[in-house]
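Feature request, filed as a ticket because there's no other form

It would be nice if the structure record came with a short human-readable summary line next to the tokens. Right now we just get the raw output. Example of a typical job, pasted below so the devs can see what we mean:
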Amino acid sequence: MLYIIGLGLNVDGISKYGLEVVKRCKTVYLENYTVDFPYPMGPLKELIDKKINFADREFVESLKIIDEAKKKDVALLVYGSPLTATTHISLIQEAKNCDVRYKVIYNASILDAVAETGLQIYKFGKIASMPAWKENYEPDSFMEIVKENNSINAHSLILIDIGLDFEDALVQLKKAAEKHKIKLKKLLICQALGTKDRKILYRTIEEVESYTGVKKPYCIIIPSKLHFIEKEMLEGFMGKEL
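Raw output as currently delivered:
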């Protein structure tokens, strides 16, 4: 049987049920390619008290884990909520095709945690992902999503590609916004929400550019039209590291 288990946002975030299931499984994998983990693996290994095998994109997308799950109980641990990444939906599809039993054990994700900013969750639009640009390849379709969200007064959550430093992400954001004729005013920067290193910043683009203290993982939110309660909450993050 295949278990896809969400770890939540910090090292102690795995649910009691999820931990019980992991301890029963013969093999445990940790998906390590969709997020920069905000904590070292040592404490997680101690908590689980089992060998953890790292599963990169190539391994997960090869669907070899499904073949293993035909013969024994296998756990795939995923940071945050287990089905946010589309790769994991593919695992479920393959499990169904191969008559392999599976169970998803849910947990909190960044999609829950951003509510701490005070922005109302139902006022967010489509989620955008910012990839790391390469030489002669600068994909900026994420800014098309921001433009679409702005047209309906919806906030834009931009998830940042693994490994992309904050300074580089800001450069990409500014270039993409300029190309799509979007004026960047104030941004929300959310770092490691749900952990002891959690940080929320609400700054103008100029103030953000001069700030170098953002660590991975982080996301960027471009707020749209604000409700007065949202505005009051955001003002509490202005010029502060909260």
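Something like this underneath would help us a lot:
The chain has two domains: 2-108, 111-235.
The two ends are 43 Å apart (CA to CA).
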